[in-house]
């Protein structure tokens, strides 16, 4: 049976790579983001897909998108990768930009989940994208890391509340070479290409478990750091301050 999958944030980066990966496997795709032109170009590239532009910060926009998608039947999967990112120190970020990042990254995940869950078949899959940046408060993470910590918590809560009717998953990527990470002025360990990240997501979502995280050589170290007592963990993270 062909999976019907809604991808939010499909216009660029990991989202576009994920659309390409699932299209090669014959999935029936619904592509969403704010940019209709980019979505239409991607749909043409992969041999066709339903293009439904919308904005995760706009509940009315999501409601209209959900109505269009519902007309085609139930979804097997719904995945959101929409995010904003600005590196730098917390006290240096513009407050309006910080509010925008929270709105897209955290509230946007909440909005997407609320729109997508009613569209899923029983046992269908909802995947929220966090980040290894949400594991622990690291220097230069600004408000981005805090939003991703919130997404992790939100996914954990929804997993508990919605099982077994909805298979809630958490995607936690490390550094991936995208338009967002181009802003970084530091060497990114274990940097991955979007296509490799997409392959890891496809494989992980096909398997069991709650969280899929990659690349393991980076994520395991950060998971270990998260388990340390605060005095030791903060002593280590302070060494990263520029």
Plain-language structure description:
- This protein is of the alpha/beta class and 242 residues long.
- The chain has a single domain (4-238), classed as NAD(P)-binding Rossmann-like Domain (Rossmann fold).
- The protein has eight helices and seven strands, in the order βαβαβαβαβαβαβαα.
- Strands 3-2-1-4-5-6-7 form a seven-stranded parallel sheet, sandwiched between helices.
- α1 packs across α6 (194-206), α3 (59-70) packs parallel to α4 (95-116) and α4 (95-116) packs parallel to α5.
- The radius of gyration is 18 Å and the shape is globular.
- Keywords: Oxidoreductase.
- One of its GO terms (cellular component) is membrane.
- Belongs to the short-chain dehydrogenases/reductases (SDR) family.
- InterPro entries: NAD(P)-bd_dom_sf (IPR036291), Sc_DH/Rdtase_CS (IPR020904), SDR_fam (IPR002347).
Multimeric organization? single chain
Considering DSSP H and I runs of 4 or more, what fraction of the residues is helical?
A: 40-55%
Number of helices in the DSSP assignment: 8
CATH architecture: 3-Layer(aba) Sandwich
The secondary structure category is alpha/beta
CATH class assignment: Alpha Beta
Number of strands: 7
Topology order in helix (H) and strand (E) letters: EHEHEHEHEHEHEHH
CATH topology: the name is: Rossmann fold
Can you give the mean pLDDT?
A: 92
Major sheet: arrangement of strands: 3-2-1-4-5-6-7
CATH fourth-tier homologous superfamily: NAD(P)-binding Rossmann-like Domain
Could you tell me the strand content as a percent range? 15-25%
Q: Summarize the main sheet.
A: 7 strands, parallel
- The number of domains is 1
């Amino acid at each position: 049976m062909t999976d019907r999958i809604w991808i939010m944030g499909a216009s660029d980066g990991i989202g576009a790579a994920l659309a390409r990966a699932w299209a090669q496997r014959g999935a029936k795709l619904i592509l969403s983001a704010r940019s209709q032109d980019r979505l239409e170009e991607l749909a043409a590239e992969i041999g066709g897909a339903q293009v439904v532009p919308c904005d995760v910060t706009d509940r009315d926009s999501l409601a209209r998108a959900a109505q269009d998608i519902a007309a085609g039947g139930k979804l097997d999967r719904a995945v959101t990768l929409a995010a904003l990112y600005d590196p730098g120190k917390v006290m240096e970020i513009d407050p309006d930009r910080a509010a925008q990042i929270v709105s897209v990254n955290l509230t946007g995940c909440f909005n997407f989940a609320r729109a997508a869950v009613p569209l899923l078949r029983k046992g269908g899959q909802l995947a929220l994208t966090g980040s290894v940046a949400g594991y622990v408060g690291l220097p230069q993470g600004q408000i981005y890391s805090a939003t991703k910590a919130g997404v992790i918590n939100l996914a954990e809560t929804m997993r508990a509340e919605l099982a077994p009717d909805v298979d809630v998953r958490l995607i936690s990527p490390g550094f991936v070479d995208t338009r967002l990470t181009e802003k970084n002025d530091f060497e990114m360990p274990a940097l991955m290409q979007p296509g490799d990240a997409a392959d890891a997501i496809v494989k992980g979502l096909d398997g069991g478990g709650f969280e899929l995280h990659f690349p393991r050589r980076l994520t395991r170290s950060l998971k270990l750091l998260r388990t340390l007592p605060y005095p030791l963990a903060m002593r280590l993270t302070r060494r990263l301050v520029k």
